[in-house]
Structures are given as structure tokens and as C-alpha cells.
Write a structure and sequence with these properties.
This protein is α/β, with parallel strands linked by helices and 433 residues long. The protein contains nine helices and 20 strands. It has two domains: 277 residues, 3-Layer(aba) Sandwich (Aminopeptidase); 130 residues, Aminopeptidase i, Domain 2. Strands 1-2-3-13-4-14-18-16-17 form a nine-stranded mixed sheet, with helices on both faces. This is M18 family aminopeptidase.
């Protein structure tokens, strides 16, 4: 299992994608290597039947399109998101406390906070600078090695720590970065040093940044029989990778779309989120050039298309089996999970679920189903939002995982291959009804 080429590519993708901006850049690079043509939203497009193209927004969201040779009648859509919960630096991040330089952080999304203590934390994101010639430029930054830590308080000084004490992210989670109360570099100095090392740039002025802390421990395949994948940001870079692999493995005969939105973990309400106009903007331009551009052509295309929203599902936890409905506890390595919620927190209905079950049958892939307990709240995905914005019939599926929203999550090592096979079969299908 450790030598499986798909898993190797997955681990490399996870390790080199510490932020949504890095994940998007890595996906664009992979698509371009496979022959996709890069488009820019600000430029005029000249789309041709049969070609493959990729476009980004905010450098953190991506849409890859496979245009059919035949008239554009239906699209096989896949959706995922590039962001993950975690700690992000505040604009004025430097804190001087006692003998330490610390960083002020904000919690992004619904992060599990306890696992962030005592981890080797690296720093990554994007930095906007003014170059010596006056040009403004955005640059990716990744320290790659640990530069900070959030140390725990010894149990001797907090005897109630194991009794459910709440964590205050404002006062108790500022990472330590640098020791010394005297002369020491500023955060700007450190950013310029790292930019020089990574981009050979000198004499720049730091104008602004969006920086995330992340666990420097690399992802791994583990277990006696290599049953597990452990790593950061499996939710939802695992789905981004799976959708990318499926699109690259498909036969390219049908119209297909992969959309990977940013900001799902904070509600999707942004220009590059699923609630924003990114997907509709791109598809409208496709219809204008490859269809007749009219409202009827648009409505017929959307209603003939199908969307599979891919976001990980809660696997049955052996220590907390009572947290699952007895009939709906998906297991690791048990195949893709259809996610159902009567209150439309997931977009699945019986028609879209039936299509996916038939796809899995054709692909020879096992399939599972998840419904949350009736006495527990249910999360959501980009599925219902995309379905609402576009009106496209949609299904929510995902790979089962443990420790969702932790700094290090766990999934089954066989499940990515299962879902890639199912999605490839979906993309290659001549008929969607």
C-alpha cells in the first residue's frame, strides 16, 4: 500500500498545500502539466470544443473544465473546497510577552483547538509586497519547517485541565515564535528574510499578508496493514485531490467540471466561495461561446447536468459509537459515503442518490450512507449552496474520516481510490438520467 502511486501523489499534494492558495497553485500546475490551458477572468476567452481549461479566482478557488467535442448538452460537475479550519495571523500579529515574541491569532472556521497545543507549527500563506520598482505583487510563502509552538500549561499548574476546561483562543493560544526581550527582528524582517530565501527578492516593502499556521509533521500512511492516512487538511483537500485525479483519468469525451471553492468552513459567502458568483460566471461564459447564450439554453444545460459535492463524512469512531445513528455509521475503507439530511443540510435526494449508487455499481465500488442522529445538529457543505445558486440536481458524498477539523485527521487508505473510480465512471457516462 505504501508504494501505491496514487497515495504517493496524495501525500505529496497534502504536504505541499498548507493553505488554500498553495493548494490552488498546485492543482493549476498539475492541470497545466496535463495539457489544460490557463484562462484569466480579466481576459477575453476563445473556447474551443474538445479542449480543457482551468481558471482561478482570488488565487484560492479553481474551476477546471473539460469541454466536449459534441454540442454542449450536459455537464458532469464535481465540487470540493480548498480551505480548512485552523489558526490565522491577525494583521498586527506581533505580541511581546515576558521574554517572548508571540503571534496574535484568529480561529478560522470550527477548529478543534486542543490538538493545536505542543505541535511543531510552520507558517504559510500569501504576502503582498511593493517591489523596488513600485510594482505590487502577491507571493506565496511557506517556511516549510516549524517556527512556532503553542505550549501547554503543565498539569501541576492546572489540575482541572482534564475536566473539560474551555480554551480561550485570545489569551491561551498565542504561539511563541522568538525568545529575547532585547534586540530582535520584527515580523516584517522575518517575512522579508523568508521571501528572499524563497523568491530571491530584496528591497521589498511588506504591504499586507494572509498567513496560516500549520502542522509541520508530514502526512503518512500508517497502521499494521497500512489501513490509514493521517495528516492535516484531509477535510477537504482529500476531495480536491480525488476530483482532480478523476478528471485527469476520465476519457475526456463528456463535458465535465471540477470546482474547488474557498471559504466553505466560514459559510461560503465570498466572491470565491460557493455562495458567490464564480461558478455561474464561468459557466455563463462557456454557454455564451459554445451554446446559443440564451436563457433557455442555460436552463436546459443546468437541468440536464448533475453535481456531486465531495466533502468528507464522519466515520464510525470505535470509542464513541453512540455518537452515530445505529443504522448509519460509515466505516473507514468501506467506500464512498452518501450524505443525507431531511432538512437539506446536504443536497442529496433519492434521484441523485440512485444515480450515484448506479455509478458505484458500474465502477465496482462499495457505497455507504450517513445520516446524523436526530438529536444532534448536522453540518453542511457546498452542495446545498451550489444547488441553490445554480439549480443543478446535486448529491453530497465523501470519504469517511475521523477527527474532522483537528490539526491532524485520519481517513482510510483505500477510500480515495474507491471514490476516484466512482467519479471517473460518473465523468465518462454518456447518459446522466
Amino acid at each position: 500500500m505504501r508504494h501505491d502511486s496514487t497515495l504517493k501523489r496524495l501525500l505529496t499534494f497534502l504536504q505541499h498545500s498548507p493553505t488554500p492558495w498553495h493548494a490552488t497553485a498546485n492543482m493549476v500546475e498539475r492541470f497545466e502539466q496535463a495539457g489544460f490551458r490557463r484562462l484569466h477572468e480579466t481576459a477575453a476567452w476563445d473556447l474551443r470544443p474538445g479542449e480543457r481549461v482551468v481558471v482561478t479566482r482570488n488565487d484560492s478557488s479553481l474551476i477546471a473544465l473539460q469541454l466536449p467535442q459534441t454540442p454542449l448538452a450536459a455537464l458532469r460537475m464535481m465540487g470540493a473546497h480548498t480551505d480548512s479550519p485552523g489558526l490565522r495571523l491577525k494583521p498586527n500579529a506581533t505580541i511581546g510577552t515576558q521574554d517572548w515574541m508571540q503571534l496574535g491569532v484568529e480561529v478560522y472556521g470550527g477548529a478543534l483547538l486542543a490538538p493545536w497545543f505542543d505541535r511543531d507549527l510552520a507558517l504559510a500563506g500569501r504576502v503582498h509586497v511593493r517591489r523596488e520598482d513600485g510594482r505590487l505583487q502577491g507571493l506565496l510563502l511557506d517556511t516549510r519547517h516549524a517556527v512556532a509552538m503553542v505550549p501547554s500549561l503543565a498539569i501541576h499548574l492546572d489540575r482541572e485541565v482534564n475536566n473539560g476546561r474551555p480554551i480561550n483562543p485570545q489569551t491561551q493560544m498565542a504561539p511563541v515564535l522568538l525568545q529575547g526581550a532585547g534586540e530582535r527582528p520584527s515580523l516584517d524582517d522575518l517575512l522579508k528574510k523568508w521571501l528572499k530565501e524563497q523568491h530571491a527578492l530584496e528591497g521589498v516593502e511588506i504591504l499586507d499578508f494572509e498567513l496560516c499556521l500549520y502542522d509541520a509533521q508530514p502526512p503518512a500512511v500508517l497502521g499494521v496493514n497500512d489501513d490509514l492516512i493521517a495528516g492535516a487538511r484531509l477535510d477537504n483537500l482529500l476531495s480536491c485531490f480525488i476530483g482532480m485525479e478523476a478528471l485527469l483519468e476520465s476519457d475526456a469525451a463528456q463535458g465535465a467540471v471540477l470546482v474547488a471553492n474557498d471559504h466553505e468552513e466560514v459559510g461560503s459567502a465570498s466572491t470565491s466561495g460557493a455562495q458567490g458568483p464564480f461558478l455561474q460566471d464561468v459557466l455563463r461564459r462557456v454557454v455564451e461561446q459554445l451554446g446559443d447564450g440564451g436563457d433557455e439554453s442555460w436552463s436546459r444545460l443546468i437541468q440536464s447536468s448533475r453535481m456531486i459535492s465531495c466533502d468528507n463524512a464522519h466515520a464510525l469512531h470505535p470509542n464513541f459509537a453512540d455518537k452515530h445513528d445505529a443504522g448509519h455509521g460509515p466505516v473507514l475503507n468501506g467506500g464512498p459515503v452518501i450524505k443525507v439530511n431531511a432538512n437539506q443540510r446536504y443536497a442529496t435526494n433519492s434521484a441523485t442518490a440512485a444515480l450515484f449508487r448506479d455509478v458505484c455499481r458500474e465502477a465496482g465500488v462499495p457505497v455507504q450512507v450517513f445520516v446524523t442522529r436526530a438529536d444532534m445538529a448536522c453540518g453542511s457543505t457546498i452542495g446545498p449552496i451550489t444547488a441553490t445558486e445554480l439549480g443543478v440536481p446535486t448529491l453530497d458524498v465523501g470519504v469517511a474520516q475521523w477527527a474532522m477539523h483537528s490539526i491532524r485527521e485520519t481517513a482510510g487508505s483505500r477510500d480515495p481510490g474507491y471514490l476516484i473510480r466512482a467519479l471517473t465512471t460518473f465523468l465518462d457516462r454518456a447518459e446522466l438520467s
